[in-house]
Amino acid sequence: MSHIGSYDERVKNFSWSISEKELDYKPGDLINIGWYCTDRICEQGKGDKTAFIWEGMTGEERRYTFHDIRRASNTIGAFLKNQGIRPEDRVCLFLDRVPELYFGFLGILKIGAIAQPLFSAFGDEALLVRMKDAQTKAIITQRKHIAKVRRIRDQLPWLEHIFIVDYDGKHPLQEKETAFALDREKPVEKLDVYSTQAESPSVLHYTSGTTGQPKGVKHVHYSLISQYLTSKWVLDLHEDDIYWCTADPGWVTGTSYGIIGPWSLGITQCVLDKGFSAEAWYAFIEKHKISVWYSAPTAIRSLMKAGEEAVKKHDLSSLRHLTSVGEPLNAEAVIWSEKVFGLPFLDTYWQTETGSIMISNYPDMRVKPGSMGKPFPGIEAAVLDPATHEPFKEPGKIGLIAFKPGWPAMMRTYWNNEETYRAKFKNGWYLSGDRSSIDKEGYFWFTGRDDDVINTGGHLVSPFEVESALLEHEFVAESAVVSKPDEVNMEVVKAFITLKPGVETNDDTELKIMNFIRKKLSPLAMPQEIEFVDSLPKTRSGKIMRRLLHAREWGEEIGDTSTLENEE
Ligand code: WT7
Description:
By secondary structure, the protein is of the alpha/beta class. The chain is built from 19 helices and 27 strands.
């Protein structure tokens, strides 16, 4: 049994007050994630402990103690405040995984503003819709991304400030732009942390849905209560661990478990600001003696592809606990990792909306490769009959994954979109939008999403967003976007297109369309294939039947299409 107690024990005696007590928090107290992740750790006498080991693209390494990250987040917070950023203003972080991203995130929270991290590979359009929706007041970015911001700034009347963290003085700054260099600012030793409370907003993460624009998921400072305890019990973080979360903070894993969870526990964490390569990853683990690793199935499958020989070139004996999230973790990947690392990757399941891990393989639990595990203590999870929204009485049936609302890290609403938020609840349950079954022993087995959203390499892509981008091209009459199978990414994006009369299909047509949408979408959302067709299958009311195209790509039974045609 691990030091955190057995799963069954924990479930029996569970209350979120366990987490509140460990964090010295009582209902009604002030609570600020930025303070908890830095000042509190220093107050506990761990200020000189290494908080952050960072490695950049060219191999340069930087190390920061908890005192350093406390001061750096103070300095950024004070700077933003002096620039007129007020509590609840949205401040966008549009940065690669540079140290300023991590310290800026905490600095924004410390002054009571709302952090809006956006993945730095986003194209103009993706950035624009998310900043427009949030009415973002300031954006923190770096030189290499400034061109994107400049191209869309005129469409963002709320945007008052553009802060550049690595300005080199070579080109003149434009209107609203200000240089901010962390190492040239006077370090701020003391900052008045804003008096945020449990329900004060903290983070706004955007996620893709089937229809409409991306939704802003609003989180609050009280989410810490879930993030702290799940980091301790599921990621099994111990005082002397060296932890590596491979996710980018543009996505929720990179904030909940790449900033908040580990630092609120005072754990040393590493970041590699570099694209994927098996060799670079193994070298990183070996060099920093990483013991706890949180990654994703697509990365694991890519490591599998690189082969066992690549593993053998390195001493990876520091690894103690491996965890995964974001997409289905296939049984082969679990079995492979057990063989080559001597440890299985343990699957965890959750969403941007849930804010923290909901279902997972607990450290002391028997692993059933291919299963997501069981609900975290205190989480009431069920599989509902889609017809009645009642939990199935018997095991083995496939239905909707649902949770009883009320855990601390649950989203509080979709930004400016209360209606869509409310539609996520049925019969007293929060509906995740995923499907699974539960076996006799209470293990959850993921079967797929309950909507048309595509999960490619762990990133959700809305078919609607891709279709909209395609439709803006002068050649395109209609489009339908679905997933097709892929060995590494599980799913990739495929677009079906009908062209306007007179447009010819040749290699050039495809290239022109691809180049056009590349500027609008993130690289993750780019179709891997475009198929030109004469017409698209439609329902009688004229809606495109993505389901039919999807079934064709996956070689699934299409069933009775006449009923499909009757669908509204
Ligand atoms: C969707 C949430 C919060 C984690 C990062 C993704 C899928 C997530 C698993 C898993 C199968 C999974 C679901 C979920 N997903 N974890 N272990 N097995 N599917 O956050 O972008 O909000 O995506 O990712 O479909 O709803 P997200």
